[in-house]
Design a protein that fits this description.
Structural class of chain A: alpha/beta
Radius of gyration of chain A: 23 Å
Helix content of chain B: 40-55%
Number of helices of chain B: 5
Helix content of chain A: 40-55%
CATH architecture of chain B: 3-Layer(aba) Sandwich
Number of domains of chain B: 1
CATH class of chain A: Alpha Beta
Low-confidence stretches of chain B: none
Structural class of chain B: alpha/beta
CATH superfamily of chain B: Cobalamin-binding domain
Low-confidence stretches of chain A: none
Strand order of the largest sheet of chain B: 2-1-3-4-5
CATH topology of chain A: TIM Barrel
CATH superfamily of chain A: Methylmalonyl-CoA mutase
Number of strands of chain A: 12
Strand content of chain B: 15-25%
CATH architecture of chain A: Alpha-Beta Barrel
Largest sheet of chain A: 4 strands, parallel
Oligomer: heterodimer
CATH class of chain B: Alpha Beta
């Protein structure tokens, strides 16, 4: 997946090129193409840092500041995660991107039967505030921001981050956290959902409202086109669906009497970088422009900075192959080049061994260094938006804008994203697309190096890479810590804070302040999520066929 | 097992991992190859998977595991299948499976292993070969 469709003549010359979003590419572009597309410099581009921000969010872009790098980190125990955080910061990383294990993501404590075999496996295990105190010890929380890859229980982790910072003496007004907190995309892609759709959206609304009132430097939602793309969406759908999901959250908060201008400036996005490079570049430029236009025209947002599409353009997981995994190092470099040419504000790269396992320290550093080479060695910081004015890129950006709008209209004509996800319509559509892409890859219709159909080099797993091994001790340590916690904490305070949380959940009061109190009382993630499970119930997936 | 009947497959996602693209596209491929495919949905306990397998009278269970927990999950499921007396149902495992784990899975009784990157053709013929 992630490659264009080519037809060739008998001599091997390319006859047609069709991108995944459905755009046909011509052999040559000239001034007449821009004219035909109605290209207007002031309307379509404008100066960097000026509306509609197609060129860049900032007038000087990378001249003033290189991109922020946020490699996804976290595994095992909070103590080990803390070591890895410090390693990444010592190596120049300026923001954290925290991975949680599956039990934590699903709101189960380490001693829950469903957590068996999963504690600390794909991220760090968190049961209570104690674990956050260990994981973030010695991290300058007023200088380093933390992305938290957590969705169904994002409200709990946001509250815990605040409680932890307060324990370490930082005011909640000085810390910056970006929980992923995009539950609708979990229902399309990644699958770490718990509660029914409407309750999921309500919790997102609670966290946004709370951030507006109490956490001025935190970004309550990171909208992830990323996973939607990984699930089979085209680049145009990736942007369109993320924007439609954003609208669902905006509508929830607006219903609470809050003006969009008060919070949309704190949304951030996470978009994918793999695939045809030109298509990705056009996608990012069109996305910045469309987001600004949509906020201005549909929501009346006027303050310039609140129109910014901030985000992480990175990852690229679905572009990587298990076959010949070292090739993924080069793939990652080119994906990152595309992100840099699009003016990505923040980035991260999947490591070359991620098709197998959690990155080893060596592969994580390779990714980080790949990103540094672009900024510090080969000249990506030299000038702002170097591709601007290219007949090809500007035409493609306009075409991409149209495709994204078409996809958005389709969802809106069906009544909006919440309904499309609740009925399973989007999920079925993307599974079908993913299946077609995969068939195309296997038949050789789409070309990927190292994936030639029938090649003897294709033995999956034939190349042995160094693996990050699972360690049973993680579960033992977590369970022992949990037992000790339950022995020493104040049970009365835990019970009363959980009771107050239940009332808030039931009577539609914002749950955030109650969660902060639960965290300070050392209530566990499983206990807090358990209150939500009882109150909201659990989502039942719509039929797949 | 009558080979003339359609093979009934339960594609199942055990445990907490939510990456279901692989499971879903394999389900579509097996269905297009003429098999009857039931998809379990996400976050299934092993008990639920066994219940569904019995209810749907499947011939084969295809576990999709991305989290790295394929060894303990397969081992547990096999012992539960034996307990329930349904170990005539064949078990296959796909997902993120490192090469070096395949012999271990086979040894505990997994009939076929399809690590990520296995072609649809190989999965389909692998499934068919279980009933020839």
């Amino acid at each position: 997946m992630g490659v264009a469709k080519y037809t060739k003549d008998e001599k091997g010359a390319i006859k047609t090129v069709t991108y995944q979003s459905g755009i046909k590419v011509k052999p040559v572009y000239g001034p007449e193409d821009l004219e035909k597309a109605g290209f207007d410099y002031d309307k379509d581009l404008g100066a960097p840092g000026e509306y509609p921000f197609t060129r860049s969010l900032h007038p000087q872009s990378y001249r003033s500041r290189a991109w922020t790098t946020r490699q996804y980190t976290g595994f095992g125990t909070p103590a080990e995660t803390n070591e890895r955080f410090k390693l990444m910061i010592a190596n120049g990383q300026n923001g954290l991107n925290v991975a949680f294990d599956l039990p934590t993501q699903m709101g189960y404590d380490s001693d829950h039967p469903l957590a068996q075999g999963e504690v600390g496996r794909v991220g760090m295990a968190v049961d209570s505030l104690k674990d956050f105190e260990t994981a973030f010890a010695g991290i300058p929380l007023d200088r380093i921001g933390s992305g938290l890859t957590i969705n169904a229980v994002a409200t709990i982790m946001m509250a815990m981050y605040q409680a932890m910072a307060e324990k370490f003496g930082y005011s909640k007004t000085r810390i910056s956290t970006t929980p992923q907190n995009d539950i609708l995309k979990e229902m399309i892609g990644r699958g770490a959902w718990i509660f029914p759709v409407e309750h999921g959206v309500r919790l997102v609304g609670d966290s946004i409202e709370y951030a507006v009132k109490e956490l001025p430097r935190s970004n309550p939602v990171s909208l992830c086109g990323y996973h939607i793309r990984e699930s089979g969406a085209t680049p145009a759908q990736e942007i369109a669906y993320a924007f439609e999901i954003a609208k669902a959250y905006i509508d929830n908060v607006v219903q609470r009497g809050i003006n969009p201008s008060e919070f949309v400036g704190r949304f951030s996005f996470n978009f994918n970088v793999y695939g045809n490079m030109w298509e990705q570049i056009a996608k990012f430029r069109a996305a910045r422009k469309l987001w600004a236009k949509m906020l201005k025209n549909e929501y009346g947002v006027t303050d310039k900075k609140k129109l910014f599409l901030r985000g992480l353009f990175g990852g690229g997981g679905s572009g990587l192959t298990k076959e010949q995994p070292e090739n993924n190092i080069m793939r990652g470099a080119y994906y990152a080049l595309g992100a840099a040419l699009s003016g990505a504000q923040t980035t991260a790269l999947c490591s070359f061994d991620e098709a197998y396992t959690i990155p080893t320290p060596r592969s994580a550093l390779l990714s980080l260094h790949t990103l540094e080479i672009l900024m510090d060695e080969v000249g990506l910081r030299d000038t702002v938006d170097p591709l601007a004015g290219s007949y090809f890129i500007e035409t493609l950006t306009l075409e991409m804008e149209e495709k994204i709008l078409e996809e958005m209209k389709e969802v809106e004509d069906l009544g909006g994203m919440v309904g499309c996800i609740a009925s399973g319509l989007i999920q079925r559509k993307l599974s079908g697309q993913a299946y077609e892409f995969e068939k195309g890859l296997q038949s050789g219709e789409y070309k990927k190096v190292g994936l030639d159909p029938g090649s003897k080099d294709n033995d999956p797993g034939a190349t042995n890479v160094e693996l990050h091994e699972y360690n049973d001790k993680w579960a033992q340590i977590s369970k022992a810590n949990l037992k000790e916690l339950k022995r020493t904490r104040n049970d009365k305070e835990v019970a009363s804070t959980l009771k107050a949380l239940e009332n808030a959940a039931r009577f539609d009061e914002n749950v955030m302040p109650y969660l902060v109190k639960c965290c300070h009382a050392y209530a566990t993630v499983g206990e807090m999520a358990g209150v939500f499970r009882q109150t909201f119930g659990e989502w039942k997936e719509p039929d797949f066929y | 097992m009558e080979t003339k009947n359609k093979i009934r497959v339960l594609i199942a996602k055990p445990g907490l991992d939510g990456h279901d693209k692989g499971a879903k596209i394999v389900a579509l491929a097996l269905r297009d190859a003429g098999m009857e495919v039931i998809y379990s949905g996400l976050h299934q306990t092993l008990d639920q998977i066994i219940q569904t397998a019995i209810q749907e009278a499947v011939d084969v269970i295809g576990l999709s595991i991305m989290s790295g927990a394929h060894l303990p999950i397969s081992e547990k499921l096999i012992s539960m299948m034996k307990e329930k007396g349904i170990d005539d149902i064949r078990l296959t495992v796909g997902g993120v499976i490192p090469h070096q784990d395949i012999p271990g899975l086979k040894k505990m009784g997994v009939a076929k292993v399809f690590p990520g990157g296995t072609s649809f053709d190989d999965i389909i013929s692998g499934m068919n070969s279980l009933f020839e």
